Structure formats: C-alpha cells, structure tokens
Amino acid sequence: MNENLKHLFKEEASELLTELENVLLKLEQEPGNNELVDRAFRALHTLKGAGGMFGFTDISMFVHSMESVYDKIRDRTLKINLDIIRYTLRALDIINYMLEIPEEKQTQ
C-alpha cells in the first residue's frame, strides 16, 4: 500500500484515539450519558472501517471486538461500567503500539 495512504490512516487513527480517550474519561464521570456512548461507538466504528480499508486488518479486527461491546451498550443489553471503560483505555494503548510496529513485524 502507498506510504502516503498509510501515513494518512495513522494520522486519522491518532485523532480518533485521542477523541475516544477524551470521551472515555468523560464517561468515567457520566456513565449514563448516552451521547458519550454513541461518540465512543462512532470513533471505534470509524477506526475499524478505516483500518480495514487501509490494510491494517489486525487493528480492524481488534477494534471490532470493542465496537461490539459498545454496540451492546447502545442497545442497552449491556451496562457500561468502570471496568469496561478502563479496559477500553488499555486497549487504546495497545492500538497505539500496533500503529508504531513496523509493518514487516506485524505478521510475525
């Protein structure tokens, strides 16, 4: 894939991760805020889709599982709690790490 496109994805992913982190920190204070849950879901959904489109399938698959959790929260079949928020924050660190790994090492 074109290096410029990869760079664009990494920039977009970084912005989405920052947005998501800010939303999650607000959710810790306002766990019943459905607008924040929707914003978290949208950021995850966008990150998953862009990751898949730009060839970052490991990131896309990893984010898909988190997106599914937030979809259940949106549907009210799962209630958000501090554990979910904290695990999601930890996952953001993992995604940032995945973005930094040289491509040739990602498949090993």
Features:
108 residues, mainly alpha, 0% strand, elongated
Description of the structure:
It is a single chain. With 108 residues, the protein is mostly helical. 81% of the residues lie in helices and 0% in strands. The protein contains five helices and no strands. The protein has helices spanning 3-29, 34-53, 57-74, 82-100, 103-106. Helix 3 (57-74) runs antiparallel to helix 4. The protein is elongated and about 40 Å long. The relative contact order is 0.15.
Coarse structural class: mainly alpha
Q: Tell me the fraction of residues in β-strands, as a range.
A: under 5%
Task: Give the SSE string.
Answer: HHHHH
Number of strands: 0
Q: Which regions contain 5 or more consecutive residues with pLDDT less than 50?
A: none
Q: What is the percent of helical residues? A: over 70%
SS field, number of helical segments: 5
Whole-number mean pLDDT: 91
Distance between the ends = 19 Å
Morphology call: elongated
Sheet of most strands: none
Whole-number radius of gyration? Answer: 14 Å
Topology of this structure?
Blueprint: H1 3-29, H2 34-53, H3 57-74, H4 82-100, H5 103-106
Helix pairs in contact: 1-2, 1-4, 2-3, 3-4
Could you provide a short overview of the structure?
The chain is mostly helical and 108 residues long.
